[in-house]
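Margin note: ligand = FE2/S2 (inorganic) cluster.
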Amino acid sequence: MVTSDKLLENPKYRDYTVGGPESQLALAKGLANGQWFIPEIDRKTLRRLMQRDDWHALRDTCILFNLIFASGGAAYYYWTQGNYTLFAILFWIYCTLYTSSGDSRWHECGHSTAFKTKWMNDVLYNIASFMVLREPLVWRFSHARHHTDTDVVGRDPEIDGRPISMWQLFILFFNYQLIKSELGKIWLHARGELSPAEKTFVPYSERFHIFCQARIFLCIYLLAVFASVYWRSPLPAMYVLLPYTLGAWHFILLGVPQHAGLQHDVLDHRLNTRTIYLNPISAFIYWDMQYHLEHHMFPMVPYYNLRELHEILKPQMPKPYNSLWEVYREMIPALIRQSSDPDYYIEREVPAPLEQKQVVAAVSMTPDKDGWVAACTIEEVPKGELFRFDVGVQTYVVYHAVDDDKFYATAGKCTHGAGELSDGLITDNLIECPKHNGCFDFKTGEAKRLPVKINLATYPVKTEDDTVFVCVGDKGSRKKVQIAYEED
Ligand code: FES
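Resulting structure:
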């Protein structure tokens, strides 16, 4: 989650510009929107782990905001008493809880996995974005690209560029590069402009919202400064602005090791992403994102199920790191070496592949003269479940709705980045894409949650005896499937 252009003020090695010349190279090599390694996991178990509830995140959010208000309030009390030592300690705790916890809440709610209830994810996402100085919409699209093209040079806006000097790493703990870059972007957006890189991953239709969000951020900062002037006290500005620098150290401490020093341009998260065991306090602040490898492989699994997912996948993963100390002992020498030899990277040892299970190939069906295919039997799709079928190279999905007990069919690939919807999660009448958590209404095909913007093609369905028929021919295709990955 640390971007190249922020870390490298004078890039000497490769051009990390998103959409730059390296982007064409990645496309030519098949690295852009590529097929990543997927470990073996029982589908039923994965579906269970993908389920969300509101309870975990509500509990943790209540605890967090109580701690933020308590530390901030206590700091204020000691300020008024003139006890500046205690003020400094408590204010530093407040800053850490505010901005470092904001980072993980921003991340989890950006994936919409923290809460089951959509609006709760959206509310916390917007608040946490402010707490960590990230404009909500821009970062939502940027992070989707990070998941598609993790550490692919020229594609990933959040890649750890190299080489990075130890001085740059040191000032990163004060969030220097990120604050400088984000304030520049907020100012740019508030003036109604986007950077060339942002134009490659932000849909045109979202630009106005981005400009409004930047202006709201600026207004809040100006209000804090005016409040300080009005009350002749530095406190309002300090409480709003200082957490960005004093409170970032914890998320930087954990964020840098997610990918730093590992391989670039490889379609296997086991080689470019780490999982680290943490103490319970750091794990609470980080919302279990230390299971970062598992998160990248299955971003639909909420933070409170990542530990169990980690245990299940362990035999197929490289050895996890037992502590931050173990990571830094490996990472720092590697970063130093990369400053003279940027091609160097830490090689992770991956276990031998599990014995290959017999893969049942999807049967390709042939439509009749009117375009109808016998997609599946009624029994094969229980209520609340889905079923994939193929016709030639096209994939389709049949859904069995819970509320009206009817069958529906859509295209099988997500219109955002061609994620396989048959691997997604059904909640009510929504199908959630496993790649970036975008959502569609499977009855209408309507795009319901970002980053998806283009509706999904839907197809007529009928049942005869115990068979579900879908019309996929010319007469059946209501809309041509469009993939919006490079939408501009
Ligand atoms: Fe991005 Fe589906 S591929 S949300």
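Confidence is low (pLDDT under 50) at residues 2-6, 478-488.
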